[in-house]
Specification:
Blueprint (H helix, E strand, L loop, with lengths): L3 H4 L7 H16 L3 H12 L17 H10 L9 H10 L6 H18 L16 H11 L4 H13 L3 H7 L3
């Protein structure tokens, strides 16, 4: 499997593209290409989904896999600085579905901050970093039904606290 699996979908970013991106991420991870696997999850998060696609039942949006990849990337494998990657990507997102995709990437940025706190922000990139509360609100507004709750559940697993409580407190 290679990037042609994704380009075979052309401009379509539908459920089939989503499934292919997830499979490609898994394929890359198994071959020790952690950074590229995370980029494939980025691509999956960019899919145009309404929330009722059958693929989402067994394979919900990949916030949990992103956290897992970040936690389990071997120290000898290059992953760059995921926090900076997400920070730059979210701040420079363009159409289509800019706001949806942007807030999904900010959600991954928050996951990276919690899972890998040793990665610093880019001090030269002037951007207002959103709170957990803001990200959750924007995922509720721009995401698919239940997306914010799903993401908060992942934060709960990471932090050992109630993700919904994190959002209510504005911590993170």
């Amino acid at each position: 499997m290679d990037a042609r699996a994704l380009t075979a979908h052309g401009a379509n970013r539908d459920a089939a593209f989503y499934h292919t991106a997830l499979c490609y991420a898994h394929y890359l991870w198994q071959r020790g290409l952690a950074a590229r696997a995370m980029l494939a999850l980025d691509r999956a998060l960019g899919a145009d989904l309404r929330g009722d696609e059958p693929i989402l039942a067994p394979h919900p949006l990949p916030y949990r896999p992103m956290a897992w990849f970040l936690r389990h990337a071997p120290p000898t494998v290059f992953i760059g600085n995921p926090r900076v990657h997400f920070q730059h990507l979210a701040d420079r997102m363009n159409e289509p579905r800019r706001e949806q995709r942007r807030w999904r990437i900010w959600a991954c940025w928050q996951i990276a901050r919690l899972v890998r706190p040793e990665f610093p922000a880019d001090p030269k990139h002037r951007v207002t970093e959103p709170s957990v509360t803001t990200i959750a609100a924007q995922l509720t507004t721009h995401g698919i039904p239940g997306e914010a709750a799903q993401w908060l559940d992942v934060l709960n697993e990471i932090s050992g606290n109630s993700g919904r409580q994190l959002a209510a407190d504005g911590k993170g």
